[in-house]
Design a protein that fits this description.
The complex is a heterodimer of chains A (266) and B (251). Chain A has 266 residues and is an alpha/beta fold. Chain A is 38% helix and 25% strand. Classes of the chains: A alpha/beta (266), B mainly alpha (251).
């Protein structure tokens, strides 16, 4: 079976006049089509940089990355046609309405005016923004912006949807709405590649996950598999949580990790 | 090309929704026109000042106001805003040529400049201005001004893409003021002091201004007009190239 996302020794180095930072130091990943894949890590671990390379937004220093079988460096336009992207910041044009932004996005993916209008109407329904469709997005709440951003990532029915910390800063109700939406999108066949700092989110949503720290993958597997492995290795009497798995994988203590990774219960 | 049109339409819609950004672009050049005429209009009466070709001093100073309006483009500041809020990345993740993201905004600047030029010329008509080169000359005046607007906005967008900051982009927009004042904007070049004449001769804005002035005051001086268009063409080409190159390598 063809992998939806595949990387080989993926490296990203940022150079400035005075400094060189290796943000990603040789990441190997394989995400199967149809999965919800979680990508966890503390702040600055390399999650967003990896996503930016996979979504053609940042150049790759070395290594290979393929999305839906397309080499993102060799054929970035084709890769962009196959992916949807919702980044950490719900990037929206504040001087356009929700409907206008969805139509614009659809047209940039090649839809005709009529097709784009139809698609926008469908997506507004889907992300529950019909009532606010013709308001400028600068009047939207954080949750509404996030839902619209998700909608814009879906205009062209992508094969792989990249969500970079999609629930950061959302209230519990909005977070649940996004989770529900992610599950629904995935049930229609879209592979979801999700980065998050919220361990409960990964536990709830993801079929498999990888933990990145210091630019390297330090652990990978299903949430249950990773927990069982930790229990066996440590001879624990109780069932470990994903927090314990995270702390074990990154070599952090609960005290040290406070402020880097948060437990949030929706 | 339809993607370019869609991005251009978006930028025009944005301009229509921000009259607070457009009004100063109109007000300040008109203010300069009125003040300049008020200050030196009496020194250069239409009937005895040869270089006015029988028109009022407002006709002589109109190009300064048009160039000023054309240098007030807001596209670069909106671009910085999109860099900061992440929308630029959203556009970069679409399969449209990345250069279209820059060009869409610049084409909207050209459209805005056409409207602004027509408005300023209409406002200036009561000051006794006529376009001596006729309707074709008026069209050429609009085109050269729009060209300058695209070039200068291109320069500011280039600064925005390089610095990714509003402060640097805003500061860069002020560069036009010394360039405007190092031109024969009050009197013809041969009436300037020698050092000022040398500075004006070295300043490419001088040739654009003289071409615009020629379209307003002369019947049609192909050499002067052609030189102005050449300067604008080179400026626009250089700025488009820088924009396209920077957008393609933006990381």
């Amino acid at each position: 079976m063809e992998a939806a996302v595949e990387t080989e020794k993926l490296v990203k180095t940022f150079k400035s006049r005075s400094d060189t930072v290796e943000a990603v130091r040789g990441v190997d990943l394989r995400v199967q089509a149809g999965e919800i894949f979680g990508f966890l890590g503390p702040n600055g671990a390399g999650k967003s940089t990896t996503v930016r390379m996979l979504t053609t937004l940042t150049t790759i220093t070395s290594g290979k990355a393929r999305v839906s079988g397309v080499d993102v460096a060799a054929d970035p336009d084709e890769a962009r046609r196959r992916i949807g992207v919702a980044l950490q910041e719900a990037g929206l044009d504040p001087r356009q309405s929700g409907r206008e932004l969805l139509i614009l996005q659809a047209r940039l993916f090649g839809a005709s005016k009529a097709e784009a209008a139809k698609k926008a109407a469908e997506l507004l329904e889907l992300v529950d923004l019909v009532d606010a469709a013709d308001r400028l997005t600068r009047t939207y709440s954080g949750g509404m912006k996030r839902r619209l951003d998700l909608g814009t990532a879906l205009v062209h029915q992508p094969e792989v949807l990249f969500l970079d910390e999609p629930t950061t800063g959302l209230d519990p109700a909005s977070r649940l709405a996004v989770w529900e939406e992610v599950r629904r999108i995935n049930s229609l066949g879209t592979t979801v590649f999700l980065t998050t700092q919220y361990l409960e989110e990964a536990d709830q949503l993801c079929d498999r996950l990888a933990i990145i720290d210091g630019g390297l993958i330090v652990s990978e597997g299903t949430p249950d598999g990773l927990k069982a492995d930790l229990r066996r290795r440590r001879g624990l009497q109780h069932d470990p949580t994903l927090d314990d798995v995270f702390l074990d994988a990154t070599g952090r203590t609960r005290e040290r990790v406070a402020g880097e990774v948060q437990e949030v219960h929706a | 090309m339809s993607s370019l049109l869609v991005l251009s339409e978006r930028a025009v819609r944005e301009a229509k929704r921000t009259p607070d950004a457009l009004l100063p672009t109109l007000f300040i050049p008109v203010f300069f026109l009125i003040v300049n005429v008020g200050q030196v209009g009496k020194i250069f009466p239409a009937d005895t000042t040869l270089f006015l070709e029988g028109q009022s001093y407002a006709a002589f100073t109109l190009p300064s106001s048009l160039l000023l309006a054309a240098s007030f483009g807001s596209s670069a500041l909106y671009l910085v805003e999109e860099i900061e809020n992440g929308y630029l990345d959203k556009l970069r993740a679409t399969p449209v040529p990345r250069s279209f993201i820059s060009l869409g905004r610049l084409s909207a600047e050209a459209i805005k400049s056409v409207g602004m030029t027509i408005a300023i010329v209409l406002i200036a008509l009561p000051f006794g201005i006529s376009i001596a080169s006729g309707p074709l000359g008026f069209v050429l005046l609009i085109v050269i001004t729009a060209g300058w607007a695209v070039g200068y906005s291109g320069f500011l967008q280039f600064v925005a893409l390089k610095t990714r900051g509003a402060a640097a982009t805003q500061s860069a927009s002020l560069i036009f003021f010394p360039l405007l004042f190092l031109t024969p904007n009050f009197v013809p070049r041969d009436m300037l002091t020698r050092p000022m004449e040398i500075a004006a001769t070295l300043n490419p804005v001088t040739y654009v201004m003289e071409a615009m002035r020629s379209l307003i005051l002369d019947d049609f001086n192909a050499t002067v007009v052609g030189r102005g268009f050449l300067v604008v063409a080179v400026f626009v080409a250089a700025m488009l190239w820088l924009n396209v190159r920077t957008m393609r390598t933006y990381d």
